[in-house]
Amino acid sequence: MAPLPLSIFIIARNEADRIGATIRAVRDLTDDLVVVDSGSTDGTQALAASLGARVIHNPWPGYGPQKRFAEEQCRHVWLLNLDADEVVPTALAAEIRALFAAGEPSRPAWRIGIAEVFPGEGRPHPWAYTLTPVRLYRKDRGRYAPSPVHDRVALEPGVKPGRLRGVIHHFSVRSLGDQLDKLNRYSDQQADDLEARGVVIPTWRVFVELPGNFLKAYLGRRHLLRGTYGFLTAMNYAMSRHLRIAKHYERRRRTTTGPDRVDPPDPTF
């Protein structure tokens, strides 16, 4: 089938085990599939290129700036953004194609559900937690915000996005350990962002962040319906939110008390 007047872009780093499925699911939709890589060492670049992607290196500047850089590399005005661990199922690809069948889509931006898939699952659980960000849009009506930790499309005032029925499958968890490592690194970036923006979170949050966010994930995000793995994933989420606050508190404490004391060596030795 003929490609759509649509560019698809993906940011990646060390995603050779996942990006292949992402590209294969959408490469027939476009003649401009862009992968912006920030320094993979596992062969991600070669794999993406072998599947038809145009691979561009850009050192990591943060989530929003990297996606803005990727937008600028795209040839078409219509953009579809995917992460390297997301797969567009056949029904959603057909829905996107149908959207362009009569020419210009009726709205300049579209929300798409993104449902998490845990290891061992082939598709999202019927009650899987689902986000609905704007992922399909005209780049002259919206661009990714420049925040280094938040990746969301900032639309022009007055733009009301539509909503597609299909859902992206999000294979975000390789393992619990890998997830916790990723969340730990992300909490560093969040603490950096809070400091850069001069945001001060009250100290009492240190005591409630972990239990509060466990309940948010386990009950609010319905992880309790996912068995033991849902419980463990909710714990990881809660720990990551706790680490964000703990690191923010530690930095503030060091600013007010000075660097940790280091006693001089004992001259008798």
Describe the protein in words.
The chain has 269 residues and is of the alpha/beta class. The chain is built from 7 helices and 11 strands. Strands 1, 2, 3, 4, 5, 6, 7, 8 and 11 form a 9-stranded mixed β-sheet that branches. Strand 2, helix 2 (44-50) and strand 3 form a beta-alpha-beta unit. Helix 5 (176-196) packs parallel to helix 7 (227-257) and helix 6 packs antiparallel against helix 7. The longest helix has 31 residues, at 227-257. The radius of gyration is 21 Å and the shape is globular. The termini are far apart. The model has no long low-confidence stretch (mean pLDDT 93).
pLDDT below 50 for ≥5 consecutive residues: which ranges? none
The radius of gyration computed from the alpha-carbon positions, rounded to a whole number of angstroms, is 21 Å
Secondary structure tally: strands: 11
DSSP summary: helix tally: 7
Principal-axes shape call: globular
Strand content: 15-25%
| Content-based structural category | alpha/beta
Estimate the helix proportion, in percent: 25-40%
Secondary-structure element sequence? EHEHEHEEHEEEEEEHHH
Largest beta-sheet characterization: 9 strands, mixed
- Whole-number mean pLDDT: 93
What's the end-to-end separation, in Å? 80 Å
